[in-house]
Specification:
Layout lengths: L1 H17 L3 H25 L7 H23 L5 H24 L11 H22 L14 E4 L2 H22 L9 H9 L7 H28 L6 H17 L7 H16 L3 H17 L22 H7 L4 H15 L8 H4 L15 H8 L11 H29 L4 H4 L5 H17 L2 H18 E4 L1 H6 L1
Antiparallel strand pairs: 1-2
Helix pairs in contact: 2-3, 2-4, 3-4, 3-5, 4-11, 4-12, 4-18, 5-13, 5-16, 6-8, 6-9, 8-9, 8-10, 8-19, 10-18, 13-16, 16-18, 18-19
Length: 484
Amino acid sequence: MSTVQVSRSAPAAKKRAEGTRPGVRTAVALVAFLLFAVVFPLVIHGAGTVYFSDTDFAIRYTVALYASVKLALLLLHSEIRPTAGVFWIFVYTGMGLAPLAQLTTGRSTALAVQVDDAALTTTTLLILVGCICFDVAYHLKLRRRGPQPQQRFRTLRSMDVLRVFSVAAVVAGLVYIVQAGGLSVFFLSRQEAGHALDEINPDSGHALRAIISSAGSVGCLTALIFYLHVWRTRDRTLTAVDGLLMAALAVMNVVVNNPISNSRYWTLAVVFGLLLPLIRGRKGLFNAAVAGGVIASIVIFPLSDITRRAGGQGTPLNLESVWVVIATKDYDQFTMFANTLAYTDNSGLSWGMQALGPLLFWVPRVVWANKPLDTGVEVGQWMNSVNLNLSAPLWAEAWINFGLIGLIVVFAALGLLSRRLDRGFRPEILSKGSVGYLGISIFAGYLFILLRGSLLQSMGRLMILVLSVLILTAVTNRRERLQS
């Protein structure tokens, strides 16, 4: 009986994954390309308030054009590719449109003071190098010699494991709340919540804080997503205990993962983690999420930081132009990469020493006094910047360690990993009860944080995320053996 069900469900899943008809997908992809590659850049060009050369505009436009082509192809293709979608959304807005807006409006963050036009041109070219390496590696097909290995996928270990994990996640969340100072802390501004979290054993630096906050927030999110999957597919029986655990997890997520006290990039990870499992194999909904994500990154994201600081302390928003907002507020990744290039020209490459910070993030500074600083902080101190809450995009992290070689290797590796993860959304995998796509959904959203940087700040939650998925799932090909 199970064999018949599996064989019938595969075509149904494939049909859902194909979603809309090819003609509709083609029209959507064409409209998106015209909007992203033509309309938005032309509007930015026309909104120029200072002198800029067409050559400089064309150089920076290449990144936006490249990302526009890739986004259009994602919408056109029948496969769902969430990790690649996140990558190209980030590149398009943060590394494509934002630099164009900075060029044409003459406005920028204060972080651009250390760079000149030549450095900005080099920055654009190196961003393209990273994109090309990611793209080539993503589409690289490695031929295996000999017999092909049996297909394997991840399944939920058991409901008992999910229940025990959920209880542990709720306990970790409660510890997080108590250590932070109570429920009220999580509904203050991000600045006030951050000050409260800094009081968690301040002598240990950010290491203990990262572990406690990550265990409390990521564990609750992962458990809830897995429970939602079980409830949605109805392939396992839910008891009254499961209902209580789901309610407790929902409440805990409202507290520890709300957008008031958490960064917007973590909010994006939470939203994608919850949204992609609902989309699952529906290509039409995925296309809507990608197109909507691009629009939201331009219009909504820069204006959504009203909870960053305590009341009355924030800088009033300048709403004279959406392009001025993009140029001056939050998309500092382009200029921070340029400043990192200037930093390495002055101080040299770290040759892997800077990477030891993220790799050994869990080691407190009281034990390792010379532990590398956050890359954004390191470059910010060199710039004599008052604000050290700076990004360090993946391009900068790769460059500060090993220069051009590091850039090529890091983005090629990310391309290979992204392709492997995106293959988890294939119809034949989804139809076999795989839950590996749940972990992929959370990671795809978390990729926003990894790309924005810095890596040192992102390692705590990433480690808990990976451990959570490994605990809840097991690699199996039991169904293939039963069929044979």
